[in-house]
């Protein structure tokens, strides 16, 4: 019982972070499960997805309540993300866990570099409407879904900086749309991992319970933070995740 309660508390912390950054909490859960609990990369990703799926759905609803998400834009991202996430997850289950972990570290560092470039490049005010529609949203959804299926993070971490840099969205609008992308892609990825026995269900369900209790607080914090602070915090968050995984290599 004490162990289960610890997983709930752990999930609560991850849920808060997931709400703040619009990612469902999986990015930090995956390296933490590997480093603290000794799970291999595929099992850590599958177990984290049990928490991520309900967290993403709740965070998506909270973001939509505060800033309406365009259903056509969400559908363009979500459908392409779903198909490519399925392909990415099938690819992931056959890879060497150590190689996947190193690839995940490189993936996180790439995201840090992309976010830092966006922060210190020429600033443009967020556009009232996205600069690009279909098929560019579909292409972004496909790429983000593929990366999400491969690394078990839902693709939101890829889509958010691209939506701000190339599509002109504000940080919170980008995070809401990224959650619309992540919702179907995390679901199909979880199904694929579960079918290949890469999920620790008791641990994942306890973390999910904790995440659902706290993610709404994270969304409130995201809307209260200045845009630049939120982006800087996101970069720091990604660096911490990369360092945690590097300790496991």
TrEMBL record:
Residue stretches spanning the membrane = 7-37, 43-63, 75-93, 99-117, 137-160, 172-193, 205-223, 229-247
- According to its UniProt record, where is this protein mainly located? membrane
Topology term for the membrane: Multi-pass membrane protein
* UniProtKB keywords: Cell membrane, Membrane, Transmembrane, Transmembrane helix
| Pfam families on file | TauE
What InterPro entries has UniProt attached to this entry? TM_pro_TauE-like (IPR002781), TSUP/Inactive_protease-like (IPR051598)
Record's superkingdom?
A: Bacteria
Cellular compartments annotated: Cell membrane; Membrane
Q: Note the PANTHER family from the entry.
A: MEMBRANE TRANSPORTER PROTEIN MJ0441-RELATED, MEMBRANE TRANSPORTER PROTEIN YJNA-RELATED
Q: Which family does it belong to?
A: Belongs to the 4-toluene sulfonate uptake permease (TSUP) (TC 2.A.102) family.
What is the name listed in the Swiss-Prot or TrEMBL entry for this protein?
A: Probable membrane transporter protein
Which species does this protein come from?
Pseudomonas quercus
